[in-house]
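hey m, so remember when u said the tokens were messed up on ur end? i reran from scratch. heres the input so u can diff it against urs
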Amino acid sequence: MKSSTKDEFYTITVIGGGLTGQLMVSLLLKSNNIDSNKICWINLNKKTFIDTRVSFLNTNNFFKLKNKFKYHFNDNDFLNIKKIQIHNENEKLPLSLEDKQGHGVIIQNDTLKKTFKFLKKNLKVFKSKVIKTKYDQYHRYLYLEDGTKIKTSLVISADGNSSALRDFAEIKYVSHNLNHTIISGYLHSKKFNNSIAKQVFLNDGFIGLLPISKNNNLVNFVWSLDNEVLKNNKSNFKYHDEIIQRLNFFFTKYNICFENQKAKTTNYDKLQIYSSNITFVNNPFSEKIALIGDAAHTIHPLAGQGFNLSIEDCFDLLKCIDKASSYGKDFGDISILNEYGNLRKKRNNLITLITTSIFYLFKKRTRKFNNIINLVSQNLNKIYGKKIFSIIARGY
């Protein structure tokens, strides 16, 4: 039986217990424009777990986190990626995008969680999900499953690709299934350079390869596999064996070998498997509510820019909140939310367009198409024009 209604008031309410939600709360607590006791966090995560996944943070975002917002990263916490190599079937040489300053860093999600950690002394955390929301001229009201009613000036929704708040607020969006399955896990490779990230375009899928440590031979793979391959044998498909076979056949000419050797902890034996969808939200806001992270945009992971867009959402929304504070405006004022939407539109739309176009360009190919791509890659290696890819990767 639900308890009787308990009314709570907060200036800002953040929803979502993932990395994006945690970063947003952490940034708000670092801000001097709002008291910590005026912020609440709806976080449904019941327990702490080890997150062995990794993220790519582009140079621009990593620099801001470290220098502008003073998050501390130990040198052993991350790997600096100085080169990105793009491989294709029947290539003579990969397209190499080199940047001596670095394209960005590879860092484990569990390390990011610890870096974004904050004291919860003055922060109210709710563990009950939102089941309904309303708004008036001044506030948005959130009704939780446990009977709590929260009145707030601004809701920041970071509740993922299947955002309930996005639906409750009737924010329009377009969602499309790419008919690919994403598989993420780990392999061992003794000759994989730990300052190079690779993207491999095969005829039945795409594989991103990211080194994760200076001290071991673990390589994280993010494999986008055509569902047609899985259609008839999904129940007995041995993911590790299949990806090792594909990679070793492809990289034998580079004398790089991969193996499914168990690490010291079984956490690295686990696979993350999920459907590949893109979600486009033209206006990531409504009355007294702003969407950030996957609730605002979901893209294919082949470019490694998904979490970068989420970080930038947090930066730009915080900028708008600070501006509202300096003008004495309500944080949920529609003009503030409009400004947030305009700040995000160009970058989010560009990355969504680029990643989706690359996906469809490489999804259905022939040997003739591969030869054309390889010819373009060889010539692109020689010209200044390839720097545009480095600029996109760095986040500028």
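this time it looks ok to me. The longest helix spans residues 334-363. if urs says something different then somethings off w ur setup not the seq
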